[in-house]
Structures are given as structure tokens and as C-alpha cells.
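Sequence only, no structure available. Ideas?
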Amino acid sequence: MREEIIEIVTAAAASIGINAVQENPSDPDSILLPRPRVDFDIGDEQWIKSHKRIAAYATPGDEATTRTTRTRLYNVTQPVVVTIHSEDDGAIDQLATNFVLAMPRRFADESGNLVTCKAEAAKWGGFTREVVEVMKLFSKSIHIVITWQACSDSTTLWAKDVDIQANYTTGGTEDG
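Reply:
I predicted one. C-alpha cells follow.
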């Protein structure tokens, strides 16, 4: 999922015109880093057990005889903090809004499971009340939550040929 998160952040940054994207810079306030730029930090995953059957379908390639059942075992939540840095305090708000709008809301991962992206909070940074500000860098941090499901697939055979041979008795006589 880490590669998909990096792709989401990079694509959203490119859509707002920022090509400088970094993960966890050692000194985010360094004057040597390009401006404007996007930094992001991927937090710890939270796994919550959630056992539920979510799909049943004919197995691709063997539709006539087998059925696949997909069961969700865990809901996984992944927090990501994206920080947009710029020298222009007037443009930072529009850049942050356009970044959030450029993120995909829902998509499927490589296994076909649903992945959702949701922005939950934003925080301003870099604004001070000093009279003289030399090389001031403004920022806005966006807290994003990405959720997906950890699923398991099981395959069962369909009963295609059924031969019922009923032998039972009623009132002492045999029917068949």
C-alpha cells in the first residue's frame, strides 16, 4: 500500500503544478529544498478485526464448476500527513484545496478491494507577527486517512450433477 500512497501524493501534487515531492525530509525548513514543494509522512497502520463476507461470484476461468467467496478479515486505516510549502501565503490555501480535490476518493487496489481517501483536517504553519521576515516559508498540513480492507478468498465447488434416488416407505409399502 505504501507505493500506492506515494503514487496518490505524487499525482495530486503534479496536478496542482508541484513536481518537488519528498517523503520525510530531515529538515523541512531548510532553504536548500525547492519551493513550492510537497512533503508527506506516512503514519502507522491501524488494523481492526472485522470478519464479514463481502462478495460471492463465479471463479474467473472456471465459472461452470467453482465459486469464490471473498471475506473481509480486517479494516486497515493509514494516516498520511501532507505538507504543502510555498513562499506565497496567498496561494497556499488554493494549492491545498486543489491538492485535496485532485486526490482519488475511491479506487480498487491490485486485489480488487476498495480503497478510500479522505482529508480530515488542515493546519497552517509559518505565519508569524514579526515585522521583518526574511525568506519566509508558509505551509499547510493536510491530514489524510486512507482506508482499505484485508480480505481472504476461498473457493468451493458447485454441485452440478445431483442424482436423487429416494427410497422410502409409506404405510408399509415401498415407493421408489
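The two ends are 60 Å apart (CA to CA).
Hope that gets you unstuck.
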